[in-house]
From TrEMBL:
Domain of life per record: Bacteria
Domain ChrR-like cupin: 103-197
Protein name in UniProt: Transcriptional regulator
Classification via CDD domains: cupin_ChrR
Lineage, highest ranks first: Bacteria, Pseudomonadati, Pseudomonadota, Betaproteobacteria, Burkholderiales
The Putative zinc-finger domain, residue ranges: 9-40
InterPro entries: Anti-sigma_ChrR (IPR012807), Anti_sigma_zinc_sf (IPR041916), ChrR-like_cupin_dom (IPR025979), RmlC-like_jellyroll (IPR014710), RmlC_Cupin_sf (IPR011051), Znf_put (IPR027383)
Amino acid sequence: MTAIHHHPCDDLLVALAAGTLAAGPAAVVASHVEGCPACANRLAELEALGGALLEELPGADLAPEALVNTLAAIDALPVTEAERVIRTARRPDLPAGARWPRALADCSGTPWRWIGPGMRWSRLTLPSDPSANLFLLRIGAGKFLPPHTHSELELTQVLWGSFHDGRALFGPGDFDAADGRVHHQPVVEPGCECICLASVDGRVVFDSFLARALGSMVGM
């Protein structure tokens, strides 16, 4: 197994365990956890701690019909057009040997779209939150993203290949969280393209006007 050097912080794992992390970021963090034994163990510890704390809380009685009414309400929910698209849509192809994270099992994705020489992207849609800003970036060996920072938080999970952004080398299975304190330029290592799963809150703030225009097309 490839060594994993970069992991989500405890704050993200706690939010994932508590179910308070938004759908897009949760998909990225969960994709990391399922391939990282260290983070899977840490998440299990946090979930056990949360369960122990819940057991100490005083109980509360529910109305006898609460469960029946809840299940009936779920059954009555209409199937939206977005859900129909999600159920029938296909996902973009991945290189031989690459696999889709289980956290993305129910998602759909657009075909690969060109955004620059050697660079493509795919918009992903999650059934639980179709508005989540979640996508794949596929960048050729030796290619790079323009220099940028972030208005809020971007979470990235490397699915294939590797890149260096001036801070560190990120390889298969590695996770990165970048906000406005980070100004970097990810450069894909020679010899292999790189595919990353990314969730973006706010915007990616590119240095150049052209890069900002291309980024707005992607939702970055």
